Amino acid sequence: MDHIPGTASRRIRANAVVVRRSDFVIRFDSVTKQYPDGTVAVDGLTLEADTGKITVLVGPSGCGKTTSLRMINRMIDPTKGRIWLDDRDIATMRPDQLRRGMGYVIQQAGLFPHRTVIDNIGTVPVLLGATRRAARRRALKLLDQVGLPANLAGRYPAQLSGGQQQRVGVARALAANPPVMLMDEPFSAVDPVVRVQLQDEFLRLQGELGKTIVFVTHDIDEAVKLGDQVAVLRVGGRLAQLATPRELLAHPSDSFVAGFVGRDRGYRALGFTPAGELPLRGETVVRLGDRLDSVAARATEGWVLVLDEHDQPQGWLAASAASDQGGAVTPEMLNLGGTLAMESSSLREALDAALSSPSGRGVIVRDDGRLIGTVTASQVLTRIEQERSAVPLAR
Amino acid sequence: MSHAWQYFTNNQSQILTWLRTTAWLAVVPLAVGLALSLPAGWVASRYRWSYPPIITVGGLLYTIPSIVLFLALPGIIGTKILDPLNVAVALTVYCVALLARVVADGLRAVDADILNAGSAMGYTGRQLLLSVQLPLAIPVIGAGLRVAAVSNVSLIAVASTLGVSQLGSLFTIGNTTGDTAPIWVGLVMFVLLALVLDGLILAGVRLMTPWRRAVGR
Ligand SMILES: Nc1ncnc2c1ncn2[C@@H]1O[C@H](COP(=O)(O)OP(=O)(O)OP(=O)(O)O)[C@@H](O)[C@H]1O
Ligand SMILES: [Mg+2]
Known about the structure:
The complex is a heterodimer. Chain A contains 16 helices and 16 strands. Chain A has helices at about 10-15, 65-70, 95-100, 115-120, 125, 130-145, 160-175, 190-210, 220-225, 245-250, 255-260, 265-270, 295-300, 320, 345-355, 375-390; strands at about 25-35, 40-50, 55-60, 80-85, 90, 100-105, 180-185, 210-215, 230-235, 240-245, 285, 305, 315-320, 340, 360-365, 370-375. The longest helix of chain A has 18 residues, at about 190-210. Chain B has one domain (about 1-210): MetI-like (MetI-like fold). In chain B, helix 1 packs across helix 9, helix 3 packs antiparallel against helix 5 and helix 8 packs antiparallel against helix 9 (about 180-210). The interface of A and B includes residues 102, 114 and 127 of A. Bound molecules: adenosine-5'-triphosphate and magnesium ion.
């Protein structure tokens, strides 16, 4: 289903290995773009966006991110250098055909106001010759895939919320199943809560689809969250560093990158280190419905953890609150503060679980939500120290 | 007023013939004018350098008093001064003068992000113009068309002073005979014609822009 011309052999090979997995590498080879007014937007950029991976371009405003992205689908042509799609120089390809094989999502979605949601999504299939009916069938499937209800199909873009528009934008870009996706700050016009949702679903989708994605953002947190690799650009359009998010946080190449990555990068880098074997302690627990007068005896340092009948932690109960009243433990009495960390979580999540817990003990659960044990902040810190001596996290 | 009604029934067939000519004079120049304005407006919107000259020429044409144009045209295009075609051409000139600018502005007003998104999806320039830019400019073009239609109708009335045989002739008759009845009849017919034309254009625009109604604008 890919539509970049002249790649038939590649397509067959890709199908033989893994169906639908993208097999398109984008390579910038010393690419420079100077606008007619003399502005150098991109300067000698060399970089490779890997097959099936998310490459994030990040940097301050005006550093040439959008220019770089638009050179990939020939909305802008470089002044110097070449861009390759696998072994083909894109300068030799017809722009409209090249673009039909590359999904494109922009801030504010850029939907056509005069077309319904379903026809917006069907745009590229129709351009490629699909019948309106086939395009609509495909669009309905995509609507579902990006988490929108089918009853939005007949609406016009102005009748959608910003988050919904952005999802339609993603669905439209995916409609012809292009091997390559170009995304220019697709989530930056929505509020932070919706943004996190969109990011999570985007990662889930990419897990299923495995596109070659170039993603532009000015938000380093988004870059680090989404990128398989991150390219930090500085104003003037020069590449400052190309690295995995973990490497970027741990070893910024210079003070510009360190400054851009931000203050608490040491803490955020913990997000890329698996917690591994933590020294967990068992908890004496109570269950919802247990008698209140049994609580004090089981509390440790004033707090006891409450589980439901499936062994899933529900919250902490203060021993003082239970003291010698009658009755049973109900959900309303619980202190719900504190995040849970999973056994597969990172050191950052484990530490956060401990720091945010009212008892000071972070709750660690299995992937199915059942309690394994608890861990204190100092135990996590010990673990971090061990990790640092093995692999230095920061210079 | 009953006098005017009587005048109408007495001269019905003559008046209906005039109505047909007048309607033709109102509609054909509008249609031809729109057809010419679309490419002219597109050029003005597409090529930045061409916008000022096209708009300026249009503005100048519009300032020529209609009576001068009616009198000068036969000399330029070789029609007879009483030929309705003469009036039709003059009205077409006014329509183009008005609509070229409207089309250019309508096309230019379409959000650049939307057009960028369109070409990024692989629309060719022509596909983008015809299936995105032009449909989105319909409300603006439609509004201009309504102005042009009404202004056309009032210019036709002026053309009656030349003696071209159409509804405007009712005013000349009223003037020479001192009878107010034909003047009333003419007035009502012109107003009705303008209202019907305006209503038709409005309905057409609404039909072609369902998205605006859905959003409640
Ligand atoms: N058409 C143009 N003509 C001249 N200069 C331009 C043009 N487009 C962009 N520039 C300049 O090129 C530089 C890079 O612009 P670009 O849009 O690629 O930046 P960006 O990294 O996407 O910024 P932002 O985060 O603000 O979107 C800027 O200095 C900008 O002013
Ligand atoms: Mg940008």
